[in-house]
Amino acid sequence: MLQKVFILGAGPAGMSAALWLRNLGFEPIVAESESESGGMQRLNFLKNNWILGSESTTGVDLASVHRAHLETLDIPVLTEASTKVDVSAQGVKIDVLRRGSIQRSFEALAIIIATGTRFRSHEYVSKIAGWGSLLSSTVFFGPFAFSKLALTGQSEVLILGGGDNAFENAKILRDLGCRVTIVCRSNPKAQRKLVESVRANHPGSGVELFCESAVVNVIRLEEKVEVRLRSGKEQIFRRVSRIHVLYGYEPNVSFLKNWSFTSSSPLALDSAGYVVVESGQRTSVNGVYAAGDVCNPNYPSVITALAQGAIAAKSIEMDSRC
Ligand SMILES: Cc1cc2nc3c(=O)[nH]c(=O)nc-3n(C[C@H](O)[C@H](O)[C@H](O)COP(=O)(O)OP(=O)(O)OC[C@H]3O[C@@H](n4cnc5c(N)ncnc54)[C@H](O)[C@@H]3O)c2cc1C
After folding, report:
1. Domain hosting residue 100, numbered range
2. Each residue of 217-268: pLDDT tens digit?
3. Could you tell me the distance, in angstroms and rounded to a whole number, from the CA of residue 221 to the centre of ligand 1?
4. Which CATH number is 99's domain given?
């Protein structure tokens, strides 16, 4: 009988692990919390030109190519699923729940966590004075904050954040003719090329950058927002039509509250909540592996996720021989 391996998350890492496991002679079963597999790239309508040989493919196309490949292999992907897991020295027991009811229960040799990350949201800004009074039509979160802007006619944008997403957003908005103010708490952490391309055109470009700065308070006006910034000793006021919050990502690990570890300590996470992995994508708990962004804060990308999924699968095959 084929040995089951359970995979949590159907993004590039989880789907790659499933493919490799199937090729290595295992029975992979994937559970995905969303209604469709594909992970973050499912939402990326821009070209993903970071994968050798597929320069004109959008993230959306890539996700559907990945999905179609698993379909040809008849690998089950249980969608809209949540899980209850017990990890013991004998293996992993899993209940897959859908809308609160157990849909399937089984025992597996191993489990791979491939749940990725999510962008930081309200909790990171809710303490700014006046934030609670802002209209939802003026505040946007995450990398696609810019996507429907053209329909609104709004053109003065405050971006909070200093990573790649913040500077990519600034570039896109500038090219759409917006006036952009970027406020970073520290110095920019975005790729140098991106920062330089935004800075190079400053101040004529319509992008201004405040580093080591913070928003002190916001005041809701009729259609705009008055923002008071602190930058060094200076106080600066800007009137904007919308605010894009791009404070980066955090790992999806909240499912761990439904996990029990019968014969080991709980899974080791780092101080930011990422799953700690050692060589071969092995975690601190035997039988538990992790792959992709959930354990890879420094190099998140499709290509590393695909590779780590493959490595996790190969490690399971090697460990199963011991
Ligand atoms: C806007 C944007 C553009 C990007 N552009 C690029 C690019 O051009 N090139 C590039 O290489 N990378 C890009 N990335 C990054 C890339 O998408 C990620 O690095 C990659 O998707 C990581 O794959 P993953 O499988 O680890 O995680 P994800 O793609 O995040 O997939 C994780 C999956 O797990 C699911 N999940 C979460 N929690 C649970 C749970 N408890 N149970 C079950 N399932 C769960 C999620 O719904 C998701 O489907 C971009 C990211 C964004 C947001």
Report:
1. 4-118+249-320
2. 999 998 899 999 999 999 999 999 999 999 999 999 999 999 999 888 999 9
3. 36
4. 3.50.50.60
